[in-house]
UniProtKB/TrEMBL annotation:
<feature type="domain" description="Transposase IS110-like N-terminal">
    <location>
        <begin position="36"/>
        <end position="156"/>
    </location>
</feature>
<dbReference type="GO" id="GO:0004803">
    <property type="term" value="F:transposase activity"/>
</dbReference>
<protein>
    <recommendedName>
        <fullName>Transposase IS110-like N-terminal domain-containing protein</fullName>
    </recommendedName>
</protein>
<dbReference type="GO" id="GO:0006313">
    <property type="term" value="P:DNA transposition"/>
</dbReference>
<dbReference type="Pfam" id="PF01548">
    <property type="entry name" value="DEDD_Tnp_IS110"/>
</dbReference>
<dbReference type="InterPro" id="IPR047650">
    <property type="entry name" value="Transpos_IS110"/>
</dbReference>
<dbReference type="InterPro" id="IPR002525">
    <property type="entry name" value="Transp_IS110-like_N"/>
</dbReference>
<dbReference type="GO" id="GO:0003677">
    <property type="term" value="F:DNA binding"/>
</dbReference>
């Protein structure tokens, strides 16, 4: 049931927000009360924030669309920090996840997951439904993180790639 619809404006972008409150039958334990699912594409990211509802046993989901520029990703990070989320799960095609992950990793509990491990029910697939499904799986702790090398290793990878490509470094 739809209980609210409003527009949130920011200098970078306008986000349409749909909030819904759901009653959940307690079949599985909720591991993370405040979970986020993000489906990332080249242009933007669909973000589903799943928070406890006003009544016991309910939760609200809010789906927003955020751009993929650095300023928009930083604004999203501030928004998620304000929501006090306990887990952020993201999936992406190609390597579009990298700016989101790298800008979130220091201040948010972020997890990159393989899309194959988070398959939704067969049928119509949309980025919005994927984000909602990721948030639900994250809330119940049902996803396993894909390995993302720590920053010192990532820097080493870039250095080795540059050396193999014949890049000559000056100085130092």
């Amino acid at each position: 049931m739809l209980d609210s619809r409003f527009i949130l404006s920011s200098p970078q972008q306008t986000h349409q927000i749909l909030g819904t409150e759901h009653e959940e039958e307690q079949v599985m334990d909720v591991v993370h009360d405040r979970a986020v699912g993000i489906d990332i594409s080249k242009r933007d990211a669909k973000v589903c924030v799943r928070l406890p509802g006003q009544r016991a046993g309910t939760f609200t989901t809010t789906v927003t669309t955020w751009g993929s520029t650095t300023n928009q990703i930083l604004a999203l990070r501030e928004f998620l920090e304000a929501q006090k989320v306990s887990v952020v799960v993201m999936e992406s095609t190609s390597d579009y996840w990298k700016p989101f992950y790298y800008l979130f990793e220091e201040s948010l509990p972020v997890m990159l997951v393989n899309a194959k491990n988070a398959r939704n029910i067969p049928g119509r697939k949309t980025d919005v439904s994927d984000a909602q499904w990721l948030a639900q799986l994250a809330a119940h702790g049902l996803l396993r993180a894909t390995f993302v090398p720590p920053e010192p290793i990532r820097v080493l990878y870039v250095s080795v790639d540059d050396d193999e490509a014949g890049v000559v470094r000056r100085g130092g």
